């Protein structure tokens, strides 16, 4: 089924978001993916709250959360390549079933307080069944918006999905904290499993917006016919290509998305960038607990996401001058400066909340800009994998941030952790400027 998403033919609308959701099927896959993504904002904090309640030790809680996130990070690109190769529906239904079973098993193990090593194993098994719904939904947007003359509509779509991410991170921590403190310390691990089951099932039922699978067959197969479809050097489908070039094209198709210039740099940037969030989450959890205000930790964490939500909606509605690399460099620099205020306001949760909202305005645009850069760099046939590397970098950053912060809190006290968000993001800034500089040099050479 083809979608009339071409900007030259579509009617003009006051809001780009109105135009996006006039495309058939977009409401359904975006809404279901939003529900399926809720666990990403609940599991990490949920594990910290549950394990700290059981063992009363921040290092153990942080390490358990890190084990889960790190396990997920390792397998995310593997799932992405499978989705690109065999299709979202075919792979997703099996992966989703395994995911839900492992999530329920981990929650049951925590509820029964099984031995700590066994619980670590369950946490890692739960992690290795996780895949990036964010990458899947963004790949669908790229598919339904194919043929656009520029990135304006895709920018709006990615910004909207970043807004959804932030809405998830507004709701998730509040739910996790409420369930942990008002229902049961393990209930916040059960609820995400139901969200994955319902949202994931609904998402994979959406056939009409599923990206087509682009395959390359070996010589001697039926693809030798003049009507065969293969993938060219930039990942586009070519009709009627001769079989003598298929071997070379196959090597292009199987090249890892990480091998394309700029993706590895973005991967490192997203590790450092996302470490700051884990450092902040664990530190604020510890600070509110020391104040006897543990029940409001979800609200406190959600304020960061509220600012990011509004930032995403604004970012998707405007056209910025300059390159995506320049935008990324400036946005990371601004966030780094806001983190200085976080440490200074650590004892005043009201002031800290105001600073969180202000800093959040640049967070979703950073995620959206990273996704747009990947879209520019990798071929269409590897887009899910390319986007998943940012998810992997994010997961690794969260894992490292949780581990480091837990050690710092136990060694130096609750306030020491609030220095870490500034330090980690500051490491990402020079990497972004390096990418910007490299892109400018390549642009000058190509003139």
From TrEMBL:
Membrane topology: Multi-pass membrane protein
Iron-sulfur as UniProt keyword: no
Pfam families, per the entry: MFS_1 (PF07690)
Regions that span the bilayer: 34-55, 61-82, 94-112, 118-137, 158-180, 186-205, 258-277, 297-316, 328-346, 352-374, 386-409, 415-437
Keyword annotations from UniProtKB, A to Z: Membrane, Transmembrane, Transmembrane helix
Entry-linked InterPro entries: MFS, MFS_dom, MFS_trans_sf
Residue span, Major facilitator superfamily (MFS) profile domain: 262-447
Domain of life, source organism: Bacteria
Entry's Gene Ontology cellular component terms: plasma membrane
GO molecular function, one term: transmembrane transporter activity
Cellular compartments annotated: Cell membrane
PANTHER family, per database record: MAJOR FACILITATOR SUPERFAMILY (MFS) PROFILE DOMAIN-CONTAINING PROTEIN (PTHR23542:SF1), PTHR23542
The protein, known as: MFS transporter
Organism: Bifidobacterium margollesii
